[in-house]
Amino acid sequence: MESLNTISILLPAFNEETILKQNVSKLISYLQTLEEKYKWEILIINDGSLDRTGQLADQMAANNSRIRVFHHHVNLNLGHALRTGFSNAQGDGIIVMDLDLSYSPNHIENLADKLFNEHADIVIGSPYMPGGKNSGVPKIRLWLSKIVNRIMSHSVPGKIYTFTGMVRAYKADFIKNVNLKTKDYQINPEILYKAMVLRARILEIPAHLDWTEQNCQKGKRASKLKIAKNIYSGLSTCFIFRPYIYFMGVGFLVLLISLYILGWIFYHTITLMPELSVETHYFDDKFSHAIGIVFNNRPHAFLIGGFSFVVSVIILGIGFLSLQIKRYFEELFHMGSFNQRKK
């Protein structure tokens, strides 16, 4: 009989005493229905909680050998929590879930099936792809999140709909060998960026992001996600994915402006030349005289046109340099990750 794959369910937790036992129990009940397909374990990462989250997690682990708890003495944020979970997971696949179960437990089977059956390195639960759904999410938050993810989608090659979501499945031997640095929510885009550098196979499945239960917890449980900070993180990540596009885009725009102004100067100079009564047959004398007249009439055009042309060349040069630096970094990162896997 073929041995079953093991999945590690990774649950970062910070001040979650009001929902911890109830939601972990829901996950256990669901995972028990999958035991003919998968072995499983649950890892709770208590990220420096100030309430009874750590104590309750330890109590659950004492009563169930499939639950393991890891404690951070202070709040180190999501990036550290995920790295702790990745390094300690014993499964063949690691599935990160949000403890509020805004993505219901039945996503676990879909993520695991996609991960193992289609030989993926990462599978993303995406509420923004065709077939995905959103329920009860505040309109402003949903609107801003969609905009950030759409911008990020256009900043990378390929087609990924959800960059910022946390609910994902990872092939364990892949994610354990990715060198991650980010300490906060930006770790999710960082993982995708470095996975792309390593030519990982990244897939998505339609997911349902449902905030109905979370809305009922208002006043009892505060959202950990700071909207403005994460929008800024998302936009800065867009720059990291393809910095040269932004430089070159701005550079070409400034170049077009400068060429329009310089073209206007050239056109008025040429059209003015036949009307000049200059006692010379030399083209350069007439041209210089015409330029002088145009300059006297529109000196600001020369200043703006010349200055914008110089600025455009500088910005485009920075764009080409950023492209070279990015390629150099990706090559070094790829080589370093390959050497780490060999060890």
Summarize the structure.
This protein is of the alpha/beta class and 343 residues long.
Task: Record the SSE blueprint.
Blueprint: E1 5-13, H1 20-32, E2 38-47, H2 53-63, E3 67-72, H3 77-88, E4 93-96, H4 107-117, E5 122-126, E6 133-135, H5 139-153, E7 168-171, H6 172-175, H7 187-197, E8 202-206, E9 208-210, H8 212-216, H9 227-241, H10 243-272, H11 283-297, H12 299-342
Parallel strand pairs: 1-2, 1-4, 2-3, 5-8, 6-9
Antiparallel strand pairs: 4-7, 5-7
Helix pairs in contact: 5-9, 9-10, 10-11, 10-12, 11-12
Describe the structure.
This protein has 343 residues and is α/β, with parallel strands linked by helices. It has twelve helices and nine strands. The strands form two sheets. It has a seven-stranded mixed beta sheet, with helices on both faces. Strand 1 (5-13), helix 1 (20-32) and strand 2 form a beta-alpha-beta unit. Helix 9 crosses helix 10 (243-272), helix 10 packs across helix 11 and helix 11 (283-297) packs across helix 12 (299-342). The longest helix has 44 residues, at 299-342. The chain starts with a strand and ends with a helix. The relative contact order is 0.11. Residues 220-225 have low confidence and may be disordered.
